[in-house]
Amino acid sequence: MDVVATLVAPCSPDELFAWVSDLERYPEWLEIVTKVVPSDEGAWAVDLRGRLGPLARSKRLRMVRGDATGPYAARFERAELDGRDHSPWVLTAQVAPDAEGSHLRMGLHYGGGLFGPVLERVLRDEIERSRLRLLGLVTASAEPA
């Protein structure tokens, strides 16, 4: 499953990239990311929580920074150390200058089949809500004090 979202923000690429290139800031704007803690050298423990009606599901992923190309590109990949085979999770973020400030393109690839269309629906709904939260945070941080 691949989910892609875009956002145009009235700020510099540096300001927008600061929000999407730092996993520890994700809980501030992406509700499904409830907690991010640096775990070991170059890795983070990322707690995800999704809700669909009365059902909720939590998952902890070990994420590392992957190879990304370009000055405003970030890539995070699942990299568990328990020796078991896990479904891949890959998060990418690319920021570029735009006539209105900056353009963000984010992608999430989930290689598992456990939730299929249900997970995709939850993610798409969350993307819509998070887009407004991120825009609010970026706009507030870009305003002069």
Structure description:
Helix content is 26%, strand content 42%. With 145 residues, the protein is an alpha+beta fold. It has one domain: Alpha-D-Glucose-1,6-Bisphosphate, Chain A, domain 4 (2-Layer Sandwich), CATH 3.30.530. It has a seven-stranded antiparallel sheet with strand order 1-7-6-5-4-3-2, with helices on one face. A hairpin with a 2-residue loop joins strand 6 and strand 7 (101-110). The radius of gyration is 15 Å and the shape is globular. The chain starts with a strand and ends with a helix.
Keywords:
7 strands; Alpha-D-Glucose-1,6-Bisphosphate, Chain A, domain 4; 145 residues; seven-stranded antiparallel beta sheet; 26% helix; alpha+beta; 3 helices; single chain
Number of strands: 7
Given helix and strand content, the structural type is: alpha+beta
Proportion of strand residues: 35-45%
CATH superfamily: START domain
- Give the strand line-up of the largest sheet: 1-7-6-5-4-3-2
- Stated plainly, the CATH topology is called Alpha-D-Glucose-1,6-Bisphosphate, Chain A, domain 4
How would you spell out the order of helices and strands? EHHEEEEEEH
Largest sheet: number of strands, sense, barrel closure: 7 strands, antiparallel
Short description:
The protein is an alpha+beta fold and 145 residues long.
Helix and strand arrangement:
Blueprint lengths: L1 E8 L3 H8 L5 H4 L3 E6 L4 E10 L2 E11 L7 E6 L10 E10 L2 E10 L6 H26 L3
Antiparallel strand pairs: 1-7, 2-3, 3-4, 4-5, 5-6, 6-7
